[in-house]
Known about the structure:
By secondary structure, this protein is mainly beta.
Amino acid sequence: MKTFFRAPMALGLVGLSSLSLAHTLSLDDQVVTATRTAQSGAQSIAATSVFDRYDIERLQVTSVDQLLRRVPGVNVVNTGGPGKNTTISIRGASTNQVLVLIDGVRIGSATTGDAALQNLPVEQIERIEVVRGPRSSLYGSEAIGGVIQIFTRRGGDGGVQPYFSTTVGSAQHLAGTAGVSGGDDKAWYNLGVSSLKDEGIDARPSREVDHDGYRELSANLSGGYRFANGLTLDGNILQVDSHNDYDSGFKANADNVTKVYGARARFSPLSAWDVTLQAGRSEDKTDTFNGNAFNTRIDTRRDSFGWQNDLHLAEDQLLTLGYDWLDDEVNGTGTFAEDSRENQGVYAQYLAQFGRHEVQLSLRHDDNEQFGAHNTGSLGYGLQFTEALRAVASYGTAFKAPTFNQLYYPGFGNEDLEPESSRSLEAGLQGTHDWGNWSATVFRNEIDDLIAYFNSGAGLQAQNIDKARINGLELQATTQLLGWSWQGNLTLQDPKNASNRAGQGDLLPRRAEQIFNLDLDRRFGRIGLGASLHAEGRRWDNAANSTDLHGYNTLDLRATYWLSHAWRVQAQVTNLFDTDYETAATYQQPGRAGYLTLRYQAM
């Protein structure tokens, strides 16, 4: 492995953090994404990271990707700052091999397969769960690398609780949020609006000398009611309108609209039988312009419906049976041979605990009108050696259906494409002690029929020509040391091209072999102080491994002062040493920047 810490201060921090190699959350936290059922972190066999509202405000992040890059095994690629295209890789899988949900509703463009994470307002988010490893046996297509589920803000007990924040910062950064939430033991609600404007940086100086700005306006409405007979109804609406300036050899910009609607009903026909019905729609609309002239429009829509039955067979045994329906539709200025497709899936999962032993088994069958039937499965096992030590292991298969662009885009689409498929194996040890928690996980992910663009003589065409093999190790821990709270993780991975052709043995593009994160926090009465270190090893920008992206590290500092229980002032400096780096070749990343926030939350 290549050395990737470049700054002396980074070396010093690594030395202090020998007991803290990970971002780990409380094992008492409830998680739902890994099994589609509520379970504590102590029960989860899948590697899962959780960020809640407290973490979002403590870390003072201004975008979703700033949170996600703290997760073990996650690579984040951004093309030039706020609002610019952002892609996520989990354990070496590509960005469209990662399933993204908002409040249980599947999102992402049906044409590109990517979810526009850069457009999601972090101030409208209550919680994020990230599951690493295959989950197609529960969710179907896209969940090869893992699943990211984002939960928007919702109300709770405590009556009416208004909240407010405003932030000013470098590059004429101006952001604001206002909302109100509340509820009682029967009803809950949340209404929030937020806005962001940032002048941006010159993302690609080689193309144009200018600022590539970004602005967005969002609104979120959610609510629910629990009836006396146990029936619970809830729903949510999220809409984000954004405008993005970018360099493309000429002054270009794009308007994007992201909409997510969801409704859910939960009830229990029998004491041992829980039923959940959920319907949702997500829309991704983009209009691009060359200067002031309209260029193209791409509108994609995903409608979904789910029926889940949780059967409590015994005190520590749960059987889940479910049905999913998904319909994708594409509209716009482009012409596709097909502009819609439907997928139906049925799944079953068995969760059980027998003394010190835990078992998780899931199977799924998907039937897609474009690529036919596909079966996936997963088996997980946990063994509690002692109260402090636990071992887990799992094996799973997954698949990814080709996108509309890969199938039908004029010029390089290929209707004969097969789904990408994978086989994954992982094993780990977890420790819980008075001084904190730790875990070590090894994983191996083999992906077949990877879709790549191959020169067929008549131009580029999408073909199933690649294979990949990713081996890795994730270390993570949390502890209290020298009066500070330490959370950190280290990922070592070998993401290689395993194809039987030119390039075999090369590293997959834009995947770092080493990733390190460290967060420190401490409270001194009314004052809170914190620091975050992020470091990545060398990567290659292209599959041929000819364009080098050097390793880098960034250090962020933050402080909070509580004026009262409800009011606080926050300040932070990001990229303290003004590190010059790229996560995609020719696309610059922001240098040193400062932000000041005033925040109010009624208690």
